[in-house]
Amino acid sequence: MRHIPTCIDNDISAYKIFMVSSRTCPHCQRVKDALNQHNINRNLMKIIEIDSDCRRDEIMQHVEHLSGSRTVPKVWINGNLIGGADDILRENSSGNLRQLLLSAGALYS
């Protein structure tokens, strides 16, 4: 089995958008809804759903190491931690989320 922190770090680097989420989390759904407002190239985005992953504790331990908290959602764009639901929704409301996605090359033209 692959080392979880290495896998997560590699995914953060490899994907323009990387999200740690839970299918049962309403905050996660709001972030997904905000992201879905944009014309994102889905091949450049990866979402890990922790509620169905047997490695959940190890994943969340590394998320805490990277972000300072064990809560979901957590979103990285272009390798940079943007934050959780409040951060993404604020960036979306201000128009900054679109700019971040454009700058990352995550949107279809």
Report on the structure:
- This is Glutaredoxin domain-containing protein.
- One of its GO terms (biological process) is cellular response to oxidative stress.
- GO terms for molecular function: glutathione disulfide oxidoreductase activity.
- This protein is an alpha+beta fold.
- It has one domain (4-104): Glutaredoxin, CATH 3.40.30.10.
- It has 5 helices and 4 strands.
- It has helices at 4-14, 26-36, 56-67, 85-94, 96-104; strands at 17-21, 45-49, 74-77, 80-83.
- A 4-stranded mixed beta sheet has the order 2-1-3-4.
- Strand 3 (74-77) and strand 4 (80-83) form a beta hairpin.
- Helix 2 runs parallel beside helix 4 (85-94).
- The protein is globular.
| Strand segment count | 4
- What is the residue-mean pLDDT, rounded to a whole number? 96
How many distinct folded domains? 1
Task: List the strand order in the largest sheet.
Answer: 2-1-3-4
Contiguous uncertain segments of 5+ residues: none
Strand content: 15-25%
CATH superfamily name? Glutaredoxin
Instruction: Note the main sheet.
Output: 4 strands, mixed
CATH architecture: 3-Layer(aba) Sandwich
SSE run: HEHEHEEHH
Query: What's the level 1 CATH class?
Result: Alpha Beta
Question: How would you sum up the global shape?
Answer: globular
Radius of gyration, CA atoms, in whole angstroms: 13 Å
**Which percent bin holds the helix content?**
40-55%
Query: Structural class, from helix and strand content?
Result: alpha+beta
Protein name: Glutaredoxin domain-containing protein
Pfam family, one: Glutaredoxin
InterPro entries: Glutaredoxin, Glutaredoxin_subgr, Thioredoxin-like_sf
GO molecular function: glutathione disulfide oxidoreductase activity
